[in-house]
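Technical note accompanying the year-one report. For the benefit of new consortium partners, we illustrate the data format agreed upon in the data management plan: each record pairs a sequence with a structure-token string. No post-processing was applied to the example shown here.
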Amino acid sequence: MLRHNELSRKCPANLVGPLIKIVIDEIRKACKKEPLSCGFNPSDNAYEPLRLMQTVMAKTNEVCLRYLDNSMLCSLPSPGPPYFQTSVCAIKNSRRRMEDRHVVIHDLNSMFNIPEASPSSYYAVFDGHAGHDAAAYSAAHLHQFLAENKHFISNPEQALLDAFCKTDALFTDKCRVENLSSGTTAVVALLRPKEKTLYIAWVGDSQALLVNQGRLLQVVNPHKPSRQDERERIEKQGGCVVMWGTWRVNGQLAVSRAIGKNFQWKRYLMEVNRSQLEIVTNLMPNIYEIRLPLALEFLEIGKLEKLIMQLFIFGKSRQPKAKVRPEITPLLQINYITFRDAEYKPSVIAIPDVREIPLDGGEDFLILACDGLWDFVSEDMAARTVYNLITENP
């Protein structure tokens, strides 16, 4: 939250980390001394988000006003080396709400008081689905779990893996308590310039493009159900991969790894006789009613569900069209079958792939983006656009 308020917009970049550290320390003291005034609810054994946010914002304003006095600035750590320039953009396009989040932290060490670690910068993009909760939670917590991990200094790859898994585990618990159901992809970059090393970790299909003197390196191999290794893993976990416009886990989710609860938002109500199958489903936000002359061939519910998912293909208009198989011999009389909402876990996991990239000093820039960019803009076009903008705005 602190990364998106007035502190991060107007404060010099080299002061943001130390000031956030001060705010965090003072908030912790306040919560320990007077938890009720900070929003703690004893009956739930948890803090009320709105009251806690108000406390944080008030403390942030107090700290900023305190350090507007130049005499106080000398108590802050001396500025480190210049930070890399960053540019961010987020557009919701036709979505009703913005479900994506991004994070830029130039000085992760100062924020979490880790002086013994090599200077580290953190950049992340989270592409939410079925709501913004998973992306917002990941944007607020993943970097914290990374910096607090015991492997952060000596083994960043393990620290990234642990941070992803912890974020997923805690958010999944939150989903159960608060009845949430969203998920998010993630691509995270941890830069250690003194070590000349870049670490990229990801789940899902958000990608990272590293450009070195005109040479393009796509760091990420996206986690999609179309990958043979991902498909085999999903099927071993009891899931299935179905072609539905594109390959999807259980006919719904177009990524095979993600952070979050990842509910399968689909309900079936079927009335079956020897010649008629009626399906009422909320495959999409709108509810479609489809009546198909179709007899039943599968007796096992799992196979029946897979058959039903294969009945639909989405055209460009995203309207479902039916494929009818009238040659099937009727085998069973069933009045009603209902499938309750099912979780994608354990088929959809949050274990990231992590890649360590040595840097030679010739790197020009790194692009982190979700599929909203890569599905419509080629890597070459994205690189050319950035080069042109840098040339026009040196």
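Partners are asked to follow this layout when depositing records. The first helix runs from residue 6 to 10.
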